[in-house]
Structures are given as C-alpha cells and as structure tokens.
Amino acid sequence: MWSRIGLVSSSSLNLGLGLAKRWLWSKSETGQRFAAVWGNGDYGRLGLRSLDSHWRPAPVLCAAFRDQGLRAIACGGAHTLFLTETGRVYATGLNDFGQLGISDDATYSTEPMEVSGLPQEIVQISAGYYHSGAITADGELYMWGKNTNGQLGLGKRAAKAVPLPSKVESLIGLTIKMAALGFEHSVAVTDGGEALSWGGGEYGRLGHGHDSSSLAFFKSTSSLLSVIGD
C-alpha cells in the first residue's frame, strides 16, 4: 500500500534514494529548483545542520543554494552530493574516508559544503557507499573518497583514502558520459557507449566473468547507448 508524502509540485525534477530510508527530492517552485529531504539524519547526511532524523520532507535551506538552484542530487552510504545549476558540487554527511571532498578534515558535516579542487563546470555527480565522483563538461572523471579496492581508478600508487577530487588519468582520451558508483566498485559509460568497470569485483559486480577485484578498467563488448540514450 502506498501513501502520499505531502509534497505538491507541478514539476517533479529529480528523485534520489539512499540507505537507511534517506530520500532526496528536487522540485521546481517559482522557477527555482531545491531539495527536500527526509529519513535518517545520522552524520548530517540530510544537510539540515543537525543530526536529527526527519520523517516528513524538510527543505535544505543551505545559504549556498539561495542564489543558485539545484540540478541533481546523489545519495551515498551516509553522505549526499548536490550539483547546482551553475555546475558547482556540494557535499554533506559522513567524511571518514574523505568522501565529501572538502579541505576540512572533520569526520562529518551537518550542512552542505563546496567540494574543493574541481576545475570546471560539473555536469554529473555520483555517490558510492564511501566514495564520490563528478564528470566535467569536457567528459573528464574526477573521483575521491575510499580507495581500498581501487574503486577510484587512480592506479596502484594511490592512497587508500583520497580526500580531494583527483582526475582519473587512465581515462584521458575518452569522453565520459555518465558514472555510477557502488559499494567498492565503479562503472562509467563513454560517449561511444562503452561501459568500463573497476574496483571490488565480489559477486561478479564488475561484469568481467569472475569475482576478483581489478585496478584496471574492464571494458564491455557491447554498446550501451541504446540503454542510456543519446
């Protein structure tokens, strides 16, 4: 049995579902997009300047969002990313592996803080359990956060936790169209429709036919453009 959640909008723009019953919803009202959140508030993952949980939608009243609307949201294990219409990225919640991408070394943040070091306009964001990613307008992929299984794609010499965004140099020459991050693995799709996967391979999650982890990039043999759209 379903029930209404009490949000009224003529234009529902984005919906994100996170763990522990945390949801985010972006809508348009008077021409500007904003986020309403509810669910588990541990570690400040709701971005409401508190650790309280909310059982009904509450708007994210971050000062940074007053002059710029939201384009997208992404929910991780206990952190949340926000992408503004101007291409800037903000993060809130747990930061024990640097998944917020902020210069502050605090273990968590209860309000959205701007991610440090992203070089240009961001067009897409993704949040894994303990890691995060962002794609630039030029199709470059930046990753940060936990890296114990190579899920950031930064190579063998990369640290086990990367607190600030780092470009995935191995993908230079490819234009990344979208990325999706899981528990300890990552998947990206190029503008040519190729799917690439890397990181923890348990339970066959990388799609390369076995359950071993990989620091290299496994490439699919078929195009996904028909799935994700042109």
Automatic annotation (TrEMBL):
Keywords annotated in UniProt: Repeat
InterPro entries found in the cross-reference section: RCC1-like_dom (IPR058923), RCC1/BLIP-II (IPR009091), Reg_chr_condens (IPR000408), Ub_ligase/GEF_domain (IPR051210)
Record carries keyword Repeat: yes
One Pfam family matching this protein: WD40_RLD
Each RCC repeat, start to end: 33-86, 87-138, 139-192
Keyword DNA-binding: no
Chain ranges of the RCC1-like domain: 36-209
Protein name: Regulator of chromosome condensation
